[in-house]
Write a structure and sequence with these properties.
Elements (H helix, E strand, L loop, with lengths): L6 E4 L4 E6 L2 E6 L11 H23 L6 E11 L4 E12 L4 H14 L1 H9 L1 E8 L4
Parallel strand pairs: 5-6
Antiparallel strand pairs: 1-2, 2-3, 4-5
Helix pairs in contact: 1-2, 1-3
Length: about 140
Amino acid sequence: MLNYSITAQSNKGGDAVAMANDAEVHFDASAGRKDKLPNPAELLLTSLAACMLKNVERYAEILKFDYIKAYVEIKGTRNDAPPFMSKIEYKLYVESNMERKKLDLLHKNILKFGTITNTLAKASELKGTIDFLTTK
């Protein structure tokens, strides 16, 4: 079993920072909306992106494929009352010359073994696609 720990603080006005390991993540904890900092909902979606991208890296070794880069777009829909993330949709792209069958297996493994993907799938409608990223 793994355990995780972070600390966070907020100053009057809502400028907040979380500390994890040796990194700081600044975010908006104001009562309103600050456009320059991510809000908690955006941090949740960022956590999902981090989980997916980390698992692309992990499964590149396990499934033995090379990739140049991975890219993900995520959109969340928030329910108003009560407030919760009702739907999360994503498009994950991987720049690689692997076969489609292996790409589909990668997607299956990300959904089956991702900590954040599993957590969010239990709390929200989580759906998305995986495809090859083509360079322009």
